[in-house]
Design brief:
Oligomer: single chain
Number of strands: 6
Structural class: alpha+beta
Shape: globular
Strand order of the largest sheet: 1-4-2-3
Length: about 150
Amino acid sequence: MERSLAVKCPDIGTHLAGTKKVQQELARPGVLEKFFPDDPEAVAQIRAAFAGLHSLDMGEEGDKTVAMALANPDRYVLKPQREGGGNNIYGADICQVLSGVKCSSERTAYILIDKVQPQPVHNYLLRSGCPLKLNTCLSELGIFGAYVRYTLR
């Protein structure tokens, strides 16, 4: 498909870069250093932006991740390796899913990610039919970026 002259948006490289599994591999020690061998400061800045990404691959590392998630499910989000939103798993549901697949290769279809814990702030919420009052709120911040690459033909 990538060899086709049809318009592809995104191209396969960009699409793969956005998958959780590729992000997980980039977060492994030594991987970013291959791309920035002479720039440890850039590696540190990039690594500081990563949330914790934990492998559920079969083996010792994946077994430790399962145990960690079962012990503290509210600290994590279990994300499936598929397109679309609304499929994330939280809290006690993580225990239910992982208990069912912990000894099966089916668990490799997921990745465990540290849940972002935003700081509560106080703000006024304007709602129809409700009096204006100070509330404790959690803000969701969206970060947008651009990916630019040169492809040799």
